[in-house]
Amino acid sequence: MSFIPISRPAIGPEEQAAVAAVLASGQLAQGPQVRAFEEAFAAFVGVPHAVAVASGTAALHLALLAHGLGPGDEVITTAFSFIASANCALFVGARPVFADIEPQAFTLDPAAVEAALTPRTRAILAVHLFGHPCDLTALHALADRHGLVLIEDACQAHGAQWQGRPLGAAATACYSFYATKNMTTGEGGLITTPDAALAERLRLLRAHGSPARYRHASLGYNFRLTDIQAALGLAQLPKLPAWNAARRANAAYLTERLTGLPHVCPPSVHPAAQSVFHQYTLRLVDRDRDAAVETLRAAGIGAGVFYPLPIHQQPLYRGLGYTDRLPITENAARQVLSLPVYPGLTPAHLDHIAQAVRAL
Ligand SMILES: *Cc1c(COP(=O)(O)O)cnc(C)c1O
Q: Rounded mean pLDDT of 157-170?
């Protein structure tokens, strides 16, 4: 059996034809494909407005700007994520404040968020990590009670739901279409919002504050997506529900085979959550995790560690003076191990993965 990578984009003849058609059209930059992709994605998640941008990082950056966050503001988020989840606060001159996570879902612990509130807190940035939604009920209640903005980092959670509702149903949500995500445009991102005025601000920020050609009302950026990328996204999107279902089925199979092992804690899904298993992440308890990763790789399995160094311990944040202790985050960073769960895995692959983990 050839090496099983941790993720693998599914690019088929539809994607190739869609991109080739855009190349042949001569219209490569943001145009009709981007508009069509925005409409299709908004319809898919069930939120009225979508604004496509160059990356998930750009989506987070613009979301914070469009909500008016800036110097003097504090944004409470998790340190157990990709660094962009915190850096977006730095981009706008605000201060990321880290709250610890729930040990089960690895997402923000609402009680820890509440404990991190100060008079300067303006926003909660909730990361739906590994495809598993945060406790949006508790976070919305907290945000409402304290007059805070809630922004969802759904870069790993396209199509996930909380209590049967789509992510971003009542907040601004940011997506990434990087090559390893549940669907891809190579690089790309998107913001959804129920708020038409916010969507308008996002569109201005995306393209040099320009409401009409060569008129510039405000300061903006060039964070546009291209029609080439949007065509790829349009070809991927209709397949996403089946891919997410395959991820869930693969995860269920692995969990069935890995339950009851002495040193393995398979991932659990909150009863109110529908996860899309961007990663299948278990905990290895009282075992050398890094050695286990090497053993699995030697067995032809691309095991991954997301994330080995939490954001508050990154050199960037140490240099900014962060000295937080986040025991649950730090423990997770030591114990987590992710296994391949992407839709293209065969039953033989899954069996091989389960056997290899059992042999640890
Ligand atoms: C991928 C990712 C991002 C950033 O998206 P890019 O498209 O790579 O800029 C932000 N947050 C999380 C949780 C991610 O997984």
A: 96
pLDDT digits (tens, 9 = 90+) for 173-201: 999 999 999 999 999 999 999 999 999 99
Q: Is the shortest distance between the CB of 178 and ligand 1 below 6 Å?
A: yes
Amino acid type, 30? Q
Q: Does residue 220 have its Cβ closer than 6 Å to ligand 1?
A: no
Q: Which of 239, 270, 287 is the last residue of a domain?
A: 239
Looking at the fold, whether 234 and 353 belong to one and the same domain comes out as no
Q: Are residues 146 and 218 in the same domain?
A: yes
Whether residue 237 has pLDDT greater than 90: yes
- pLDDT tier at 1 (50, 70, 90 boundaries)? confident
Interatomic CA distance for residues 25 and 28, integer angstroms: 8
**Domain membership of residue 335 as a residue range:** 240-358
Distance 82 CA to ligand 1 centre (A): 6
Q: Do 283 and 349 belong together in one domain?
A: yes
**Pairing between β-strand 189-193 and β-strand 49-53 as defined by DSSP bridges:** antiparallel
The answer to whether the CB of 77 falls within 8 A of the CB of 86 is yes
CA 56 / ligand 1 centre spacing (Å): 5
CA of 195 to the centre of ligand 1 (A): 23
Strand order across the 264-265 sheet: 264-265, 280-284, 336-339
Which of 239, 264, 288 delimits the end of a domain?
A: 239
Task: State the CATH number of the domain containing residue 216.
Answer: 3.40.640.10
Q: Which of 82, 106, 125, 278 has most ligand 1 atoms within 8 Å of CB, for mutation? A: 82
Same domain for 234 and 258, yes or no, is no
Query: How many helices and strands (H and E) does the chain possess?
Result: 13, 13
**The model's pTM:** 0.98
127 lines ligand 1 (CB under 6 A): yes
Interval 289-330: pLDDT, tens: 999 999 999 999 999 999 999 999 999 999 999 999 999 999
Any atom of ligand 1 within 6 Å of the Cβ of 229 = no
- Total domain count, the chain: 2
The tokens describing 113, both together, are 């968020």
